[in-house]
Amino acid sequence: MAAAAAASAELVIGWCIFGLLLLAILAFCWIYVRKYQSQRESEVVSTITAIFSLAIALITSALLPVDIFLVSYMKNQNGTFKDWANANVSRQIEDTVLYGYYTLYSVILFCVFFWIPFVYFYYEEKDDDDTSKCTQIKTALKYTLGFAVICALLLLVGAFVPLNVPNNKNSTEWEKVKFLFEELGSSHGLAALSFSISSLTLIGMLAAITYTAYGMSALPLNLIKGTRSAAYERLENTEDIEEVEQHIQTIKSKSKDGRPLPARDKRALKQFEERLRTLKKRERHLEFIENSWWTKFCGALRPLKIVWGIFFILVALLFVISLFLSNLDKALHSAGIDSGFIIFGANLSNPLNMLLPLLQTVFPLDYILITIIIMYFIFTSMAGIRNIGIWFFWIRLYKIRRGRTRPQALLFLCMILLLIVLHTSYMIYSLAPQYVMYGSQNYLIETNVTSDNRKGNSTLFVPKRCDADAPEDQCTVTRTYLFLHKFWFFSAAYYFGNWAFLGVFLIGLIVSCCKGKKSVIEGVDEDSDISDDEPSVYSV
Length: 540
Known about the structure:
By secondary structure, this protein is mainly α. It has 16 helices and 4 strands. Strand 3 (442-450) and strand 4 form a beta hairpin. Helix 1 (2-36) packs antiparallel against helix 2 (44-73), helix 3 runs antiparallel to helix 4 and helix 11 (351-360) packs across helix 12 (365-388). The radius of gyration is 29 Å and the shape is elongated.
């Protein structure tokens, strides 16, 4: 009874910590979205949508260590189940986590395929001044219907893709269809939801390869290199203004006698006047930044930024080394592409795969590390998005600027971050597959021991760490793993995606090293929506 009471107390403490984490996630999302949204074009609905969608993705990721903790907590370190962890209790715990994933993943599907597209297209139509609200809603619903159809198709495909085949090869077509429906009913829709979420995770993998891999190198190197001096940039800008004014004066002098300017000179004059307006705008912002107390404060924090940059680049190298060793282990020792490159045991150890199971035994140290990993991916992804922008193939759609991001761009930003956070669960599995599958569970195996006192062998049960080769009744697989590896072809795509992630990181590292310091007002040249009356500090 005392052991059961202690176990219940620890579980309550764990759920309380999870609740506090939820509050922290909501506060972080609110601050994050408010930091980047435009002050002049902020909309309540788009702000709430962005905060809610990003929070749901982070809460789903926060459920990962809870899942791992619960399956690990049911067993003792000697490989035996705890007294209170009978079959019914284990099933109840597994079902609770499973229903939690059902709920959160369903909300994610609703956000991605209905709510975010509807709000986005609603505000796209709102840009037309002569459009009524009724017309905006109708048009937004029309475009959103296409996303809803895609979601329905994904659910249908996932529901009826046969994971098993009928044993009777001579079965009729009706028996095959009946088998599919029976399989769907036995899985309680897990396959359909898993297929849809895995499809989104695959898109998140592409976003992570594009933005996160580059941001992992760009963020630390930008912190280390810093920005250019505002005073030096202002001096250069003044010289450029004088040069442009000279060109304008030269062109205008050609028409002093009343002769009209040639078409070529008119075009050149217009270009020089546009350039002059931009340079004077830069002059005003540079003057504001040079005299700003925030610039002086950031200058005092320069050594701290260098320390953070070095820390971030070391963390990036740790992730890259761990990911490389994990992928190399799959390439050398996995069961092949048909199994999704599943490995039986860890043949090549990597730092994170060794560290996470150790931290998991002392709750909530693994929670803290998982939170740090997710936040690291968020910040590096944001750094990549800010440096690259949001593109559709070769067309640049939006730029992300602190305090100047339009509602539509903010929705795009949170959609990308949502998909990247979804992919984070698989990234953590790639870094520590044993931890994500079984946590710190052990199981008992028989070992024959030769005794010196007795003639013959004796049987001894010794604990062994759970892996993919362990008996199903001895080791409980996490619900997260079931969602991630329901379909082998997604796992195979993630495996090749990890190699692409490593390649983009190395390319980004070379590019970031070769690039010079960023301008202290980077983006003023391009942003036509920057108000001359509202200068802001652009330095990071």
